[in-house]
Amino acid sequence: MHAYRSQTCAELTKANVGETVRLSGWVNRIRDHGGILFIDLRDAYGITQVLCDPDSPAFAAVEAVRAEYCIRIDGEVKARDESLVNPKLPTGEVEVFIREIEVLGSAAELPLQVFGEQEYPEETRLRYRYLDLRREKMQANMALRSDLVASIRKRMWAKEFREYQTPIITASSPEGARDFLVPSRLHPGKFYALPQAPQQFKQLIMVSGFDKYFQIAPCFRDEDPRADRSPTDFYQLDLEMSFVTQQDVFDTIQPVMQGVFEEFGGGKKVDTVWEQISYRDAAKWYGTDKPDLRNPIKMQDCSEHFRGSGFAIFAKLLEQEGTEVRAIPAPTGGSRKFCDRMNAFAQKEGLPGMGYIFWRDKTADSVAQELGITVKEAQAKMKAGEVEGGMEAAGPLAKNIGPERTEAIRVQLGLKVGDAAFFLGGKPKQFETVAGKARVAIGDELGLTDKERFAFCWIVDFPIYEQDEETGKIDFEHNPFSMPQGGMEALQGDPLKVLGYQYDLACNGYELVSGAIRNHKPEIMFKAFEIAGYGKDEVEKRFGGMVNAFQYGAPPHGGCAAGIDRMVMLLADEQNIREVIMFPMNQRGEDLMMNAPSEPMSEQLMELSLRVIPQE
Questions:
Q1: Residue 164: its pLDDT value, please?
Q2: Tens digits of per-residue pLDDT, 366-389?
Q3: Which of 140, 224, 292, 362 could form a cystine bridge with 509, CB 3.0-4.6 A?
Q4: Helix/strand/coil percent split, the chain, to 5
Q5: DSSP character at residue 251
Q6: SS3 state of residue 405
Q7: What does pTM read for this prediction?
Q8: Cα–Cα distances in Å, from 483 out to 247, 335, 394, 532?
Q9: How far apart are CA 261 and CA 151, in angstroms?
Q10: Region label for 251, one of left (φ > 0), alpha (ψ between -120 and 50) or beta (otherwise)
């Protein structure tokens, strides 16, 4: 017999009854039923119930074990009584009577329980991550991650991509975040950097003539943490292709992503038609460039209905250049209680509030006011059918702008009795983020968002440049390596109108993929950087390797990268990315288990010609 096991804890069935077996695993939990000790023995594959009675020579040793002891047992497989079968376990029809036990690893008092789904502080979970990872949910999340990566690799090879590895130690390169720098011992005072992405290398692979590249690539960025972003490192499906258009990239990555979500999505619907939405339309309709299309609400510009209206706040606002008023439709949200709740939501987000209108059936009060009669008379006329029913607009805004304008708004938004609309005004960039959050909150509160669906869309036509409102300086708004739409000719006009062949893939409110058709022509690249205030010398200094390579027959090329961690987070239905990373950092970028970052030894600093300046 094998030294540790003849079967795993998921393999025993009725066919094994009568056999002597050897199992190894962890004590998931112990139950004492009238002197008979039952142990749920757990390994990476499943659970088997093992038991011991006082007649067994191993009873005293079994009595001494505790939760999370690692043990080996030998015993006889017996069928459970029919009334005691556990249909939830593959091994639920049998149990093993322990004849011999060996403690392979004892366990001290546990800082967190593995059995059950108790909540523990994140600090405790990360400090004792090896225990946290033993929990059923974490085992499932990590298995999902591993299976997903394996599936992606198979799908990419099936599309005739080859996997190539790019350097982990390289030169510093601005990718939109801070680098992690690595001091050089052989070159004192100089530093390598951990790559924020394999961006330049994968483009150089295309210049080298390899045509199709992919990699499950580690990326390192010194970023502030968020629920959907690791503060130090993450993994992405990185790919690049030569002689392709933007649509070619879409047609390549969609079946890979769609197939993975269908395979691991747990039966949720996966969109097969992926809409292409311009960056500007996404901001206008959804208040974000990563919209959640499971929510059907689409915001609209309602400026004309408020221009010159009796609502002075919006009317005066619209006299300023670059301002507008947007409406957030709220189907079924037509109650004052709900409207007040959403107004309070806006105030929590730092705005004075949100104006609103809601539509309801006419009341006796409004009929009385309209006809100049008492409420009681109005009620009598309504009951007798002498007054036509119908709807009316209610709320502070409705009173200020009058029935004609409110009716025009209702028609534009396609609303009816029982619906509402919320309004925000100003320069779009100042309120779009809050408007986007309000849209999500409204969709969730009213039950409009389809939670059993993965909704994808491409965001396209990103502007390459933006202008600082205070200084007037032009700088890159998005990826500086994207090919401008229109090439060199586009760069001769207004920089703020230049769009790039850049694209993101959004799913359920998260950015999953980002990519571009690359700017592979040195003269266009130099001009693009010149507009943003970077001279030719600086471009050559920062990106010399790539710029030099482009002078030797660079092919048109493009690609994208898909975030592995975010994909698993969505598929596992988790709200925090740390739930799907094996050994994540905490919110402060610390590894509590390995005590990193740590202070270097003085010998290490001397060897690297470095000195640490104490922080006050």
A1: 98
A2: 656 666 677 676 666 656 566 555
A3: 292
A4: 35, 25, 40
A5: H
A6: helix
A7: 0.91
A8: 14, 49, 50, 15
A9: 11
A10: alpha
